[in-house]
Structures are given as C-alpha cells and as structure tokens.
Design brief:
The chain is an alpha/beta fold. It has helices at 2-13, 15-18, 81-97, 101-131, 145-166, 181-197, 221-227, 255-267, and strands spanning 170-176, 200-205, 218-219, 234-239, 245-250. The chain folds into three domains: 2-44, no CATH class; 75-126, no CATH class; 146-267, Glutaredoxin (3-Layer(aba) Sandwich), CATH 3.40.30.10. Strands 3-2-1-4-5 form a five-stranded mixed β-sheet.
C-alpha cells in the first residue's frame, strides 16, 4: 500500500516533465489546447490562457477606380443619333466642369448641329402629317380657333340631345349632407340642369337633413352605405326602368362638367372624344 502511494506521488511530481513527450502541453489541463482525455469532460474545458489571439489585419481599402474617359467623336465620324447624344453630353459635362471659352465653343457648335437636325425633323413631321389625313390628329380634335368653335358648337348640340333623350327614362341621384358647403354650392346647379333638360334630380341626404334647394330629401343613410358613398357631394345616374346606375362623379362639379361627364359616360365609347 505504501509503495502504491509513493508511486502515485512520483508520477505527480514528474507529470510536467513527462508531458514533453506528448503532443499537447499537459494531461492535467482542461482547455481547447489539450486533447480530449479521460481527465476532462467536453463541456468542462476552459479556454486556453497561454495562447494569444493574433490580431487580424484589416483588408486593404480598394483603390478608387477612375471612370473611363470617353473618346472624342468628331461630327464627320458620327453615324448614329446615340453617338451624337453621347458626344453632346461629354462636351456639356466638360464645359460645366471647366467652362473655358474653348470648351463652351466646342459644346455649342455640336449643340447647334443637334438643333438644326431637330428642326429638319419637326418640319418633315408636319409635312407628312399635312399630306396624310389618317395621321393628322387635328382632324379628330381641332387645334385652330375657328375649328374649335365649330367643334364646341357641335358638341354642345350633341350633349343637349343626349341629356334630353336620357331624361325620358333616367334620373340623377344627388347624395349630400346638410352641413357640406360644396353640397350647398352644387345643389342650385342641379336644379338648373333639371329645368333646362327636363331630367329629374332626386335629392338624398346622408344625415337626414335637407338643403334649401332640396328641402324634403330622401333619407339616404342606409342607401349610401349600400352604394359605397363615402364622400359628398356624389352624383349618380340611374335607369327608371331597370334600376341600373352609374357614378357621374364625386366632389363639387361645375354645370358644364356635369353635362360633359353625363354625355361622355352614356353617349360615347372610350377614346371617341379624347
């Protein structure tokens, strides 16, 4: 028994010296530098204290790249519009950053060439349009004063005929609120519209109260919710026969605007009068 104790003490005393034959520092250490052995549990290892962390060197900053300089293109060598635009931009940038007389003159010379080409293009455009009726938009929507007057007169006649025809089996539904100033302003316009074209206008209040021009309106609080009316004034047109309806607009509208909207929405197809 005494010999066994002495043997253990001897092993402990020579532990450090015998560790030199190992490929790690000591069998008595429990850290990341020691290999896993029966003296240490994996989760009991302590971080090594004798290993100094090597500072990481910051990556060198990338050198700023210089933008490639565009090569100068002379007018005689320009074959495409893209080349002219690029060269005009290059000269403009140079004149802005270095506004010397030479740079300004260089830019303006090419700018004048571009203006001349644009003028030739615009003149050729109108010549082709004048001689090709199907390409002339002014034949669909006049641009000169005399033709505009004739167009407006014809349009007003068509609008009047359309509204008088609608008055036979259609009516307008006017949603309002008694404390809405825009509703107060729009109400007499609708009365005037009704008197002129004979179309009936039904006043519908969303707060149960009337206006001077519509003193006895229908209570439309429930109907407004069903129709999705969230803003007033709101104007709809509806068929007396089928009950179909369509919104004319929301917010205050002028009389001419109301008439135009009714005509466009009920008497034309998209694109006819635009």
């Amino acid at each position: 028994m005494r010999q066994l104790i002495f043997a253990c003490l001897a092993l402990q005393a020579c532990g450090m010296s015998s560790a030199q034959g190992l490929d790690y520092e000591s069998v008595w250490r429990c850290d990341d530098q020691a290999k896993f052995n029966w003296y240490c549990d994996q989760d009991e290892r302590r971080p090594a204290t004798n290993v100094q962390a090597q500072p990481t060197k910051p990556a060198p900053a990338p050198k700023p790249t210089q933008p490639a300089k565009s090569a100068r293109v002379e007018l005689k060598d320009m074959k495409t519009a893209e080349q002219m635009r690029a060269e005009l931009k290059r000269r403009e940038d140079l004149a802005v950053m270095t506004p010397s007389d030479a740079n300004m003159k260089d830019y303006l010379e090419l700018w004048q060439v571009a203006q001349d080409k644009g003028a030739v293009f615009a003149d050729s455009w109108r010549r082709v349009v004048w001689q090709t009726p199907e390409l002339d938009y002014s034949l669909r929507r006049p641009t000169n004063n005399q033709a505009i007057k004739t167009y407006d007169s014809t349009r007003e006649h068509d609008e009047e005929q359309q509204l008088r025809a609608l008055a036979k089996d259609h009516g307008l539904i006017f949603f309002f609120r008694s404390d809405c100033p825009y509703c107060h302003a729009m109400a007499p316009l609708l009365k005037s519209l009704s008197n002129k074209y004979g179309i009936e206008v039904l006043g519908v209040s969303v707060d149960g109260k009337g206006l001077p021009d519509f003193p006895s309106p229908k209570d439309g609080r429930q109907q407004a919710a069903v129709w999705g009316v969230e803003r007033v004034p709101a104007l709809f047109i509806g068929s007396k026969e089928t009950g179909d309806r369509a919104a004319i607009g929301f917010g205050a509208m002028a009389l001419t605007d109301i008439v135009q909207r009714i005509f466009v929405l009920t008497g034309t197809k998209p694109g006819d009068n635009f």
